[in-house]
């Protein structure tokens, strides 16, 4: 994978196709590889960029403190390095939390926004405690223990063994330090609800009909606060809707891009 230098960090990314740029921001605790089916579907008519966020996949954690703002600044740095002014940002789950940070810090660089399987709310106190417990668990015992714990919540009950194996493989390929840093960064993220009415680019909210982590009513309520936004439920998908039902996800995405 190519890398660009963000400070002292070599940020790894995929960059396929040509046309209007689309920046795909991955979920926790996965990597840019979760977007394989979107890269294949859209690179024929778009420039599709899919980074591994710091601490995930082929990108090292680096020395700087991790936060949603830091991830968002890394994305802006990646666009700078690639000579891209504006892009349509597609953020799934943690990728959506990062999209909110990107909106706060780099709004002028957004041409459009897809918020998939995500929520604007900050964590509850119990949620933060759970993140810290998971950070300690992953640092002590590694990523496969976290995969065991998270897989049932990430996927629809009917997910195929192939999808389960793919997601497990993506989780287990990550380094515990990167995963723990992301957990602590998500726990510290602010509430973004106030931001929603200020979104002024074409926006689509997508959610798996069986997403138990950011369920359809949460996604619908978020869409209702974003002026003129579209909303689509991906039938039969859980939280990782792009990976579980890629065709339906891509059709919905194509509609917005059109
Ligand atoms: C994700 O898919 O990115 C995570 O489930 C987000 C979270 O844990 O809040």
CA-based shape: globular
Please estimate the helix content. Answer: 40-55%
Contiguous low-pLDDT stretches (5 residues minimum) are: none
SS element count, helices: 10
User: N-to-C terminal Cα separation, in Å?
Assistant: 30 Å
- Which band does the percent of strand residues land in? 15-25%
Summary keywords:
alpha/beta, binds D-malate, 8-stranded mixed β-sheet, single chain
Chain-wise SSE layout:
Layout: E1 3-6, E2 9-16, E3 21-25, H1 36-42, E4 47-51, H2 68-81, E5 87-92, H3 94-106, E6 110-116, H4 125-141, H5 143-154, H6 161-172, H7 176-187, E7 203-208, H8 216-224, E8 230-234, H9 241-244, H10 246-257
Parallel strand pairs: 3-4, 3-5, 5-6, 6-7, 7-8
Antiparallel strand pairs: 1-2, 2-4
Helix pairs in contact: 2-3, 4-5, 4-7, 5-6
Provide an overview of this structure.
There is one protein chain. The protein has about 260 residues and is α/β, with parallel strands linked by helices. The chain contains ten helices and eight strands. The protein has helices at about 35-40, 70-80, 95-105, 125-140, 145-155, 160-170, 175-185, 215-225, 240-245, 245-255, and strands spanning about 5, 10-15, 20-25, 45-50, 85-90, 110-115, 205-210, 230-235. It has an eight-stranded mixed beta sheet, sandwiched between helices. α4 packs antiparallel against α7 (about 175-185). The chain is globular. It binds D-malate. D-malate binds near residues 28, 93, 186 and 239.
